Structure formats: structure tokens, C-alpha cells
């Protein structure tokens, strides 16, 4: 297995065998709260994602593992990949509660985006985050993302309208 290695973590491509972990993590209330899509995950739904998105190249997904133990702790992915526009949307979740708040998110972001720029040759990576998720926004900024827009009352979840921050990161190797 080929690893993408950092200091605290390493990334490997997600497999179908990771389905139970993904379902468990995405159904964690802490994780669900920070996603626009908040429906409960099922193994069948995740395998459908695998078949229609991962296997078709419309998405790329990694499992985040601790460096020393290789314990899986979360996932990072790119979706809405556009070959025409040379870009993708970034997403991450730390599924294991004891792995939150340790600076892992910024490292994952740098490693994954480096992969997107170097291997996939994307020009731009975007992300969407809830405006109130200040920890995530700080982590993304630390990894180099810049705020591009504030989308007021963009989504309605459980009867509450929430603002979305749109952020972008340009490939430093591409010039205009």
C-alpha cells in the first residue's frame, strides 16, 4: 500500500473494507453537525457512493491514519472533480473523538491538497464550511485557503438557516 506521509498522520486510499468506519464516523453527532448533508449514513448508501463516485473518478477519498499506529481516525476527500476546470471540492472529517484538536486537520489539508495539485494537476481546490465552525476555518486558513465568499442563510437545517463560507486554494505551481 502506498502511503502519503506527514509528521503526525499518513493517508491511504479508502477501500470498500472501510465502510463500517465511514458509517460510524459520519453518524457521530459531532461530525454530522458540521456537514450540510446530515442524513444518517448506511452501509448501502456508502457503497453506492463508492460505486457511483469513487469508482467513476468523480471523487477521491483517503483514510487518515495515525503515523505510528496506523489507526484510522478519519477521512479526507475530493468531490465534484472537474477535468474541464481543473478543480475539485475538498472535505474532511476526523471521526475519532480523541483525535480532535491535535492539529491533524491542517496537516491532512496540506498533504491532501499537495496530492491534488501535484498528482491530479488541479488548478484550484475549493471548500465550503459553516461560518460558525471557527476551528475548521482557522485550520483551513493555516493550510493556505483564503476566504472568497460568505453565503448568507445558504442552507436550512432543522429549521435553522446557516451561513456558509466558501474558501479557495490555488495551485502554487500554476501561473496565469
List the helices and strands and how they pair.
Blueprint: E1 4-5, E2 9-13, H1 19-26, H2 29-33, H3 43-54, E3 60-66, E4 72-82, E5 87-94, H4 104-118, E6 124-130, H5 134-142, E7 146-157, E8 160-170
Parallel strand pairs: 5-6
Antiparallel strand pairs: 1-2, 2-3, 3-4, 4-5, 6-8, 7-8
Q: Keywords, please?
A:
176 residues; alpha+beta; Aminopeptidase; eight-stranded mixed beta sheet; 5 helices; 8 strands; 36% strand; globular
Gist of the model:
This protein has 176 residues and is of the alpha+beta class. It has a single domain (4-170), classed as Gcn5-related N-acetyltransferase (GNAT) (Aminopeptidase, 3-Layer(aba) Sandwich), CATH 3.40.630.
Characterization of the model:
With 176 residues, the protein is of the alpha+beta class. It has one domain: Gcn5-related N-acetyltransferase (GNAT) (Aminopeptidase). 28% of the residues lie in helices and 36% in strands. The model has no long low-confidence stretch (mean pLDDT 94).
Amino acid at each position: 500500500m502506498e502511503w502519503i506521509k506527514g509528521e503526525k498522520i499518513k493517508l491511504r486510499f479508502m477501500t470498500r473494507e472501510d465502510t463500517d468506519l465511514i458509517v460510524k464516523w459520519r453518524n457521530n453527532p459531532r461530525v454530522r453537525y458540521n456537514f450540510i448533508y446530515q442524513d444518517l449514513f448506511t452501509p448501502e448508501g456508502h457503497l453506492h457512493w463508492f460505486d457511483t463516485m469513487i469508482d467513476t473518478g468523480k471523487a477521491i477519498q483517503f483514510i487518515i491514519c495515525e503515523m505510528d499506529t496506523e489507526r484510522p481516525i478519519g477521512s479526507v476527500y475530493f468531490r465534484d472533480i472537474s477535468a474541464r476546470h481543473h478543480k475539485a471540492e475538498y472535505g474532511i472529517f476526523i471521526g475519532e473523538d480523541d483525535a480532535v484538536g491535535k492539529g491533524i486537520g491542517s496537516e491532512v489539508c496540506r498533504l491532501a491538497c499537495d496530492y491534488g495539485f501535484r498528482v491530479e494537476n488541479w488548478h484550484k481546490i475549493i471548500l465550503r464550511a459553516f461560518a460558525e465552525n471557527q476551528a475548521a476555518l482557522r485550520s483551513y486558513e493555516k493550510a493556505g485557503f483564503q476566504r472568497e465568499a460568505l453565503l448568507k442563510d445558504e442552507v436550512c437545517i432543522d429549521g435553522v438557516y446557516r451561513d456558509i463560507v466558501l474558501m479557495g486554494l490555488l495551485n502554487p505551481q500554476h501561473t496565469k
